[in-house]
Amino acid sequence: MNEIPDLRLIQESSENSLDKNPSAPKAIVLLSGGLDSAIAAKLVIDQGINVVALNFHSPFCTCSSNSKYNQCGAVYFASRLRIPIKTISKGDDYLEIVKNPKFGYGKNMNPCIDCRIHILEKTKAYMKEIGAKFVVTGEVLGQRPKSQMLHALQTIERAANMEGKILRPLSAKLLPPTDIEKEGIVDREKLLAIHGRRRNIQVELGKNYELIQQYCAGGGCRLTDKNFARKLRDYFDNNPVPQMKHMKYLKIGRHFRYEGAKIIVGKDEQENKMLETWAQKSDVILSVKNIKGPSTLVQAPKTDAQIKFAAQLTLRYSDAISGDYIVEVRNSRINNQWTDITIQQDPEIMQKIEEYRV
Ligand code: SF4
């Protein structure tokens, strides 16, 4: 069973010696925006290590939207810990990994093992750049069934060619000693032996270190969400060359696919505005004239049937009751090939809506 550690022991040198001793050994902490990696950083800072934070950002991160301050959790924790932070955006190469992970998926479309390898490979380059000796992560043994069991941690280290270079302070005492512990640069006795999914110790430490005001348990990743995963799978099925810049569309609205065309119906005023702003030249925006309701984005429609179906959806999610309504059809081309249409709700189409939902 996990025991609450003796904080006095851990906090013996609670002052961050970073500013005082720039010649101290340097480490990179992979700050995810979750509490675990922030505590891992603190445990190493308290041993006099010169810690620099590295955060990998992507449209799949949920920390800033979960945060009551609407701020990236990693940036927040770095400022609380008074350490510098560098952010790297995951690119299209990462999407290829999400599409075809060598080590498979977790519960949904989260390719955690491949994701960690990818991150560590990028981290290695940054280690070289700043002369860091090792990497610190907030991983906890047994916390995640696929990527945080001992064999998975070892697989990740081997694949990234980082054996002995990754210190996991929250579970260090349960893991084989790293090079840095063997060399005595980090005192293993001051590290922890946390195991499993419960976060009571981390929360306790977070309070003690005054890190807890903003608490995002696991860093937050949309790839673990089943609704998001469904939309992403549909995207991959219909876009042979996936691009990160398209991921923003998957984060909002109700999604439908009709005869190959992707249709996104805004859920509120803010989403309506986003969809209108994001519409490309070949896209079309629909809304019901004089009635409160959604803006609907149809991506590169090709047929009248696609527009008619999108018009029905727009009517369905508007305040329209019964009778004829005009659905405005707009796009940014000078010669809009589509014209406004006057329609009534079609009960037959309404019944089939769910068949087309992504
Ligand atoms: S949860 Fe998401 S960000 Fe975290 S390792 Fe898995 S895929 Fe990567």
Q: pLDDT average, as an integer?
A: 89
What percent strand? Answer: 5-15%
Poorly predicted spans: 6-19
Question: Which hetero ligands occur in this complex?
Answer: iron/sulfur cluster
| First and last CA, distance | 43 Å
How is this structure best described in words?
Helix 2 (35-45) runs parallel beside helix 4, helix 2 (35-45) packs across helix 9 and helix 6 packs across helix 7 (150-159). The strands form two sheets. A six-stranded antiparallel sheet has the order 6-7-9-8-10-11, sandwiched between helices. It has helices spanning 7-10, 35-45, 63-66, 73-81, 92-99, 112-130, 150-159, 179-182, 200-208, 226-238, 247-250, 269-278, 304-316, 347-356, and strands spanning 26-30, 50-57, 85-89, 134-136, 166-167, 254-258, 261-265, 284-288, 296-299, 325-330, 341-343. Helix content is 36%, strand content 14%. Helix 7 links the parallel strand 4 (134-136) and strand 5 (166-167). The chain is α/β, with parallel strands linked by helices and 358 residues long. The longest helix has 19 residues, at 112-130. Mean pLDDT is 89; it is low at 6-19. The radius of gyration is 25 Å and the shape is elongated. The protein binds iron/sulfur cluster. Iron/sulfur cluster binds next to helix 6.
What is the element layout, followed by pairings?
Elements: H1 7-10, E1 26-30, H2 35-45, E2 50-57, H3 63-66, H4 73-81, E3 85-89, H5 92-99, H6 112-130, E4 134-136, H7 150-159, E5 166-167, H8 179-182, H9 200-208, H10 226-238, H11 247-250, E6 254-258, E7 261-265, H12 269-278, E8 284-288, E9 296-299, H13 304-316, E10 325-330, E11 341-343, H14 347-356
Parallel strand pairs: 1-2, 1-4, 2-3, 4-5
Antiparallel strand pairs: 6-7, 7-9, 8-9, 8-10, 10-11
Helix pairs in contact: 2-4, 2-9, 6-7
This protein binds iron/sulfur cluster.
